[in-house]
Structures are given as C-alpha cells and as structure tokens.
Write a structure and sequence with these properties.
The structure holds 2 protein chains of 2 kinds.
Chain A (H helix, E strand, L loop, with lengths): L3 H18 L8 H11 L8 E3 L9 E3 H7 L2 E2 L13 E8 L3 H12 L4 E4 L16 E2 L8 H11 L6 H21 L13 E2 L9 E2 L5 H15 L4 E2 L2 E9 L4 E8 L4 E12 L23 H8 L4 E2 L4 E8 L13 H4 L4 E2 L13 H15 L1 E3 L3 E6 L2 H7 L3 H5 L1 H8 L10 E10 L2 E3 L11 E3 L4 E2 L10 H21 L7 E2 L1 H13 L6 E2 L8 H4 L1
Parallel strand pairs in A: 3-23, 4-5, 4-12, 5-9, 12-20, 19-21
Antiparallel strand pairs in A: 1-2, 6-8, 7-8, 10-11, 10-22, 11-12, 13-19, 14-18, 15-17, 16-17, 17-18
Chain B lengths: L4 E6 L2 E6 L4 H7 L19 E6 L2 E8 L9 E5 L21 H5 L11 H5 L6 H10 L2 H7 L8 H5 L6 H16 L4 H11 L15 H9 L6
Parallel strand pairs in B: 1-5
Antiparallel strand pairs in B: 1-2, 3-4, 3-5
Helix pairs in contact in B: 4-5, 4-7, 5-7
The chains are: A alpha/beta, B alpha+beta.
C-alpha cells in the first residue's frame, strides 16, 4: 500500500524504534507553548478570520466560513408561517440527537416532562458516536477533581469559565456511575476494577474507556434507553430557526422535515440546543474527523436569536488525523494509541515532540515538522509517522487487537497492518472549543434556551483535553435536561413570534452586510454538483 | 492506473467513477447529495448500510457505503429507512428474569444456524456465535463477542427467521454493563467522597486561587509515571 519513498522512510522508523522507546523529550513550558502556537497553530492565522458586523459578538473575529453562515440569510424570510396553530406543543424541545441531546432527553423524561427530540439524521448520528479513546473522571486514589480541574484549566490555556469546569470535574465520577447504571461497559483491568490510563496534558491516569469505541458504546446505550422509554423524536428533521414569544423568551422552533420537504412548527416552553460541532465546514481547507452533519446549525439559529458566543474562533485540530490513504483522509487516529506508547517520528525516524503534549501544541508541532521533515502522501500533503508497532512492543503482543480493534480494522481494510507498520498522520479539524456561552445551569443568555455538548462554549477554554468532551456531554446534557424540565413547569408563554429574524436582517442592512447565503447550512457541499 | 474508472449503477443511472473510491465518495463524485444514508463516514454509526449486486454475480451482497470500495458493474441500493419497530424492554426486569433475552426475543429459538447474519456483518463479528451464547444464557460472552456492533441492521435484514441479532446483542451488553461486570470499588468511594462535600471549596482547590498561582501550580505539577 505504501509507496517506495514511504517504505524507505519506514525503514528508518524501524531502525530507530528500540532507541526511540526510551528517548526522553521535555514538555514545553508555558512560554515555549505560546511561541509555538503563535507561529504554527491555525487559530493564529489572522487572514482566516474576520470580524462579525452584527449580533451579540459584533467586532469579534470568527473563522471566515462560520462568519458567512452567522451573517447568512434565514431560510424562513420569504415564508408565510402560521405560528398560531403549532404542530407540536411541548415542555422541552431538544435539538440534536447526540450524546448531550440524549442525556438531556433522559433527564427531562425523568421529570415527567413532555419531550421531543429533533435530529437532522437519526438519534445517535453525531460526533459522540465517533469518540474513541476515552472519558475522563478522577476516580483513582492518587487523583482528585482538583487535579482534573488543574490539568483541564491549564490545558485550555487558563481561559475556561472556572465554575463550569468545576462542575464538570466534580460531576465526572457520578457520570461514570450513571452510565454504568444504564449498562455501559467500561474496560476493566486484571484486578477487576476500572482500567485507567493517561492522555495529552493529563497528569494522572484518569482516562476510562470502552476499548477504542468509547463513544459508540456510550451513544448506543443512550439511544437504546431513549427507544425503551419511547421518548418521542423526529428524525431527518432540522431546526432552521428558533421561535420566541413576545416577551423575548424562547418558545420553540421552526423545523424542516427534510424527507417530506415540509415546514413544521413546534411550540416549546424550553429548548435545549445540542447540535454539536462545525467540522465539515472545513475551516482553512483542513480535512475533518467529524460526522456529516457538523455544520454549526445550532450556533447559527441561536446567534440570530441573540445568543452570545464564547471563544467562537477557537478550534481544536486533532494532531493525529489519518493522512493516507485518501479514503480515510482526516479520520480520527485515537489519542489512546499514544496513551499506549506510540510516539510521533518524522521522515528520518526521529522523535521531535513529547507524544502526550496537549492537542494544540502537538498540532502546531506536526504542522511545523511536516514542512522540514515530512513524509509526502499522494504527492500533495506531508505528514509524520505515528509509530504504532511500538504499542505491542511495550505492552505485549495482541494489545492493539484487544484495545484498538476499530483502528486495527480501519487500516486493515486498506491493507495496512498497524501492528507491523506505522501510520501517516497530520492535524485534522476535530472539535469546536467555543460556542454558545452557558452558565453553570447550562443556560444561554436567552431565557429558557439551554445549551449542551460541543455547541456550548466556556468549559474548555481554547483547547479541550482528551476525554473531556464525552464527560461534558453527559454532565451538561443532564444538567440542561433537568433544568429545562423543572423550569418548564412554571412557564407561561405569550404569543409566538419570529420578529427577531426580520430584525437581524435589518441589522445586516444597516451594517452594510451583503450576504444571501442560506443558513443554517444543514448539509455540507461534498457532491460534485455542489462544487460546480 | 490513476485514471482507471469503473461503472456503477444508482437510481437507474450509470456512472463512471474512479476505481479506488468508496461507494459514498463515488456517489458524491456522480453528483449525488446525501440527505439520508450518510453518518460518520468512519464505519461506526451504521447509517450507510447498502445492498448491492454485481453484473458478474447476482447474489445480493451488503456492506457499509463509507467503507466498501466500488466494483465494476455494481448496482447499489440504499435503505431509505429500516422498516421495523424496536423491541422495547425494562432493563430492571433482569433482576427477576435471568432469561430476559429469550423472554424479550423468543424468536431466538427459531435460529437454523444458516450463518447469513455472520456473512452480512460489515465489521466482521461472528454473529451466529453470539446468538448461540445468548440462547445458552451466557450473556457475558454474548456481550464480549458482539462488542464492535454498530447496529447497521444488516444481520436482521438478512435473517430468514426474522431474528433481531443486533438488538439481542444490545440487551446482552446492557445486562453485562449493569449487572455482570465487577463493581468498581474506587468509583464507589470517590462518589461517596464527592457527595460528602470533600471537594467543596477546600484550600487546595485551584479554582479558588489567583491566576498566577494556578499557572505556577500547573507548570510545576508532577506527572504520574
């Protein structure tokens, strides 16, 4: 499968392998980190960002592709909508059927609220299901929520909202118990207790996993619970605009049944936005690890309704996205591989970075190293090697097949045996660090609009650690669902309105913004017809 | 070689596509925009199950569109949706009924061991094996064998006796996770400590410190070996 040039480079990797196992590389200090990021991290390439001219974050820079959608044109502007007779009238509307949406639904259901989940594809189609390596929770005796907080706060460059991160780290162990109660099977070690290991920028053995299918195991269990409880949902139905009432409270959403091409009105006392990330917007032309639906829809409809965003320009590039062969370009190569001992080496087979630095540092380092000592894939892109054969060498034969079955199969399908050969990697657009700002009740600045999961902003600062997203979706998904359900009991809605959409369009005109791009995006433009 | 094309058929039209593309990428290349049948693109969500026949071989085959590379003369059919309900149950019933799987899925006894399920599985699971474990009441082994299941529905779709293999496996795994796996002592202890308020606003809490002190603490923290 590998070209002759690649095979020559692999020979050097193999030659150095034994030596490389014991090579010690120092982690960067904070000053070195800042210098590296400013020079090489995509978030610092200023021409790729532009200031918003309208909305709550006016004057703030966001990625060009996102700006185009945030200042885009609503899909309902020319539509004659009758809001007086909604098709659905419920307590809690949950937009998004991934991990956070599912957790919110289960908690709302526990509080006997009438719930409706709407999802652009099926329940479970999400980035959650693709998460591989693990979920963080400080359960070991030599660990504590304080250390989890410290690792995460520093890893996020000291920008996280402390109260959110505190909530996350305190609730993490209980989230694991809750998931086990639902039947999630976390890996055990020989002494039969939960297996833990470390990750990038993490000072303790805190990662808990389900082989390299942690997200799949969690998401399919949550989905099964939703189906067993018969919680109502609408699949292949997007939320294309939020609805408010005349007092400015959130009051539901305008939905689009994408199969029947019909508009549907849902009146709801509370709304939970859990629409995930924005990876398939492919900022700066990067490949992405995300699922097909990651088009920032929730950000767009919330922004149009007056939501404030936090760190909307901060994106996480996962350092090890697959680079070769082309069929898996951008696919996740889990950090767990490095937790198990695999290291990054350049075209000469030399170590150039500590393998467990934080993701922003590693991505910047790989971008830097690929320019000088990269391995060329398919004649265009350069990357570096992740020396996977080290894993079995360090931990014993069979470790890869037992602990990384998905990764093994993914490469084997393409005739690459990762127990014998290293894999080519390069940063891939992976996670939206910021999003709609939330408080510790998981609510946005819009009354009764709750937000949970990747679409929220403030928990991870400007860089998320491995395993903190899964725990974030559980912790804040549950908080959002619980709070939405409890709040809904006392809400009385006044007349429904979508005036905020027209006002937004007027604000655009006044600011001189000319942008007729329909937003939210809903589906990425991958088809050849789209590109022409 | 780079220009080599193969012929595929989709929705009554013929397309020439590069030979090395997956079905998903080949259909996008042909101008198709997916509204259904495309999920993670990575082989873990089961959204893109397809069935197909080849010019050279009329046997009905199935796979995941995001993983399967196109073949010359391929006729592709996406599932518009999966036409079945889901068998609903209460996990807690396991406490009183240790044969919960056969109670909820009595059709498991109709299995004729034809192995169509295993042949249909796109992630290489020995489905017949785990069905046998489930029938014997060995839910732990059923859970372990079925672990990589992505609920793509291809096993059920191919089963002559209408057994819902992947749903059976889901129940076995939930029983395993909740009732059969060893309880974690350290998890239980930590949850008790948190509930007792041990981590509420103590002096060593970095959330309470000045930013410069936190930065120093962060830079000097020791890493577990």
């Amino acid at each position: 499968m590998y070209s002759d040039k690649m095979k020559d480079s692999i020979k050097l990797v193999e030659k150095n392998r034994e030596k490389n196992i014991s090579v010690a590389v120092n982690r960067l200090d904070l000053k070195q980190k800042e210098e590296l990021l400013s020079a090489f991290h995509p978030d610092y390439i200023h021409q790729q960002f532009k200031k918003l001219k309208i909305g709550e974050n006016k004057g703030e820079k966001v990625p060009l592709e996102l700006l185009s959608l945030l200042e885009g044109r609503s899909r309902i502007l020319d539509k004659d909508l009758d809001l007086s007779r909604p098709d659905y009238d419920i307590d809690v509307l949950i937009i998004g059927g991934g991990g956070a949406g599912a957790c919110a639904a289960i908690e709302a259901d526990n509080h006997s609220s009438s719930v409706l989940i709407v999802t652009k594809f099926r329940i479970g189609d999400s980035n959650t299901i693709m998460a591989e390596g693990g979920i963080q929770a400080a359960i070991n005796e030599n660990d504590s929520p304080y250390i989890h907080f410290l690792d995460s706060f520093g890893g996020g460059n000291f920008k996280a909202k402390k109260e959110l991160l505190k909530r996350l780290t305190l609730d993490a162990p209980k989230s694991i118990s809750w998931l086990e109660g639902l039947g999630v099977e976390f890996d055990r070690c020989d002494n039969k207790d939960i297996l833990t290991f470390s990750g990038g920028g993490i000072s303790r053995s805190r990662m808990i996993s389900c082989k390299d299918h942690t997200g799949l195991e969690i998401m399919r269990t949550l989905k099964d619970e939703i189906l067993n409880r018969r919680i109502p949902f609408l699949e292949f139905t997007s939320a294309i605009e939020l609805i408010k009432d005349e007092k400015g409270k959130i009051a539901g959403a305008v939905l689009l049944d994408m199969r029947r091409e019909k508009l549907v009105i849902c009146r709801a006392k509370t709304v939970v936005i859990a629409t995930g990330g924005s990876g398939v917007l492919h900022y700066q032309g990067f490949p992405s690890s995300n699922h097909y639906g990651s088009t920032a829809d929730g950000l767009v409809i919330a922004y149009r309704a007056g939501a404030k965003l936090l760190f909307p320009s901060s994106m996480q590039y996962h350092p090890t996205g697959a680079l070769f062969p082309n069929n898996i370009l951008g696919s996740l190569v889990t950090e767990k591989a490095r937790s198990l001992g695999a290291i990054l080496v350049n075209s000469e087979g030399n170590v150039f970075v500590h393998p467990l630095e934080t993701r922003d540092v590693l991505s910047a380092m790989i971008i830097k190293e690929s320019k000088a000592h990269g391995v060329t894939a398919d004649g265009k892109r350069q990357g570096v090697w992740l020396d996977t054969p080290m894993i079995d060498l360090i931990n014993g034969e069979g470790t890869i097949k037992t602990q990384l079955p998905h990764m093994y199969r993914m490469f084997m399908n393409l005739k690459i045996d990762i127990t014998k050969e290293p894999v080519l990697v390069y940063p891939t657009l992976h996670y939206q660090n910021g999003g709609i700002e939330i408080n510790v009740d998981s609510m946005s600045n819009i009354e009764n609009l709750y937000v949970a999961g990747e679409v929220s902003g403030g928990i991870h600062g400007s860089n998320r650690l491995m395993g903190n997203s899964l725990v974030d979706t559980i912790v804040f998904g549950r908080i959002a669902g619980r709070n939405a359900a409890q709040k809904a009991k006392d809400i009385v809605l006044s007349r429904l309105t979508i005036n905020h959409v027209e006002k937004f369009e007027e604000e655009k005109k006044a600011a001189g913004v000319i942008n007729d791009r329909s937003s939210p995006e809903l589906l990425p433009s991958y088809s050849k017809a789209d590109k022409e | 070689m780079a220009d080599k094309k193969v012929c595929i058929h989709y929705l009554d039209k013929e397309y020439l596509v590069p030979y090395s593309l997956t079905i998903i990428k080949a259909l996008e290349h042909s101008g198709h925009k997916f509204k259904i049948g495309y999920g993670c693109g990575n082989g873990v969500c089961g959204a893109c199950s397809v069935i197909y026949r080849l010019d050279s071989n009329p046997a009905l085959k199935c796979s995941l569109a995001c993983q399967k590379i196109v073949e010359d003369g391929m006729y592709i059919l996406q599932f518009p949706y999966h036409a079945a309900d889901k068998r609903v149950y209460d996990l807690e019933n396991y406490c009183l009924d240790k044969n919960l799987i056969t109670t909820v899925f009595p059709e498991i006894y109709s299995c004729i061991s034809c192995n169509a399920c295993t042949k249909a599985c796109p992630v290489g699971i020995d489905v017949l094996k785990y069905i046998n474990f489930a029938r014997q009441g060995d839910y732990k082994r059923c859970a372990e064998t079925s672990f990589s299941c992505i609920s793509c529905n291809l096993c059920f779709s191919n089963c002559l006796m209408n057994i819902r293999q992947f749903e059976i496996a889901m129940l076995a795994r939930r029983i395993n996770g909740r009732y059969l796996m060893e309880k974690s002592q350290k998890l239980a202890n930590r949850v008790k400590e948190i509930d007792a308020g041990l981590f509420d606003n103590a002096i060593e809490d970095p959330a309470m410190m000045e930013i410069d002190d936190v930065k120093k603490l962060y830079e000097n923290r020791n890493f577990e070996k």
